[in-house]
Amino acid sequence: MNHSLMSERITHTALFSLLLLAACQPPPDARRTPSTGFTTAATPRRAASSDSSAVAFVRQFYATYAPRAIAQGLSATDSVIVRQPTAFAPELLTALRQDAVDRAAAKGEIVGLDFEPFLASQDPCERYEVGEAHRAGSSVRVSVYAVCQGKRTPQPVAVAEVTPAAGTWQLANIRYPDGGDLLTILRSQ
Fold first, then answer.
1. How far apart are alpha carbons 23 and 19 in whole angstroms?
2. Going by C-beta distance under 8 Å and a sequence separation of 6 or more, which residues neighbour residue 5?
3. Would you call 34 helix, strand, or coil by DSSP?
4. How far apart are CA 140 and CA 122, in angstroms?
5. Separation of alpha carbons 113 and 125, rounded Å
6. Cα distance between residue 100 and residue 146, in whole Å
7. How far is the C-alpha of 186 from the C-alpha of 115, rounded, in Å?
8. 113 with 95: CB under 8 angstroms?
9. Per DSSP, which regions of the chain are E strands?
10. Which pLDDT tens digit goes with each residue over 29-82?
């Protein structure tokens, strides 16, 4: 067996093990200690009531996530659900974990997500900016724009939908300009 193939198998086995370990953890709302490394989630005592706090949450998520995703592609999605599970609403976290397990078990086949879901792209731009917020019931939808070759897209590439949870916000869904959304995509696979 060549070194490249053996390295790929070790990587897939390690990823699968991490995802299984994460899947066995209690849901984020059952934890008393939030994930470290995510400023907003690490301070749940703040009231999650204003649109500005929702924008700050989404801005912090993208500030830490986007650089990793640009460098790592879909593996960044897999690692963020392990490292920062409290950033996600339970339904989205469960669907993302299942997608990661399915992709890891596929052994080279294209299964599950085939694009970067939070950046809404197969070829991410150099950076992402958070824009305006709009109320949708108890949720807040925050526009996310790509900055490609120094120019910001005129329309959002994604809209992060966040919901209040334990005094902070959690990412509940990502909506796309074509009318689709991440939860629907994950459920249909």
1. 6
2. none
3. coil
4. 26
5. 19
6. 25
7. 12
8. no
9. 127-136, 139-148, 151-152, 158-165, 168-175
10. 433 333 323 333 333 334 445 899 999 999 999 999 999 888 887 688 888 999
Short-list 59, 39, 38, CA closest to 143: 59
Closest by CA position to 132, among listed 55, 61, 64, 48: 55
| Local structure of 157: helix, strand or coil | coil
Question: 131-143 burial, b if ≥16 CB within 10 A, otherwise e?
Answer: eebeeeeebbbbb
What pLDDT score does 21 carry?
Answer: 40
Residue pair 69/118 in contact by the 8 Å Cβ criterion: yes
DSSP state of 27: P
* Of 150, 141, 151, nearest in space to 171 by CA: 141
Instruction: Report pLDDT digits (tens) over 78-127.
Output: 889 999 999 999 999 999 999 988 888 877 776 778 889 999 998 899 99
For the entire predicted model, the pTM comes to 0.73
CB 23 within 8 A of CB 97: yes
50: left (phi over 0), alpha (psi -120 to 50) or beta: beta
Q: How far apart are the first and last CA of the chain?
A: 32
Q: Which residue has the tokens 């409290």?
A: 86
pLDDT on residue 78: 87
CB atoms within 10 A of CB 2: 7
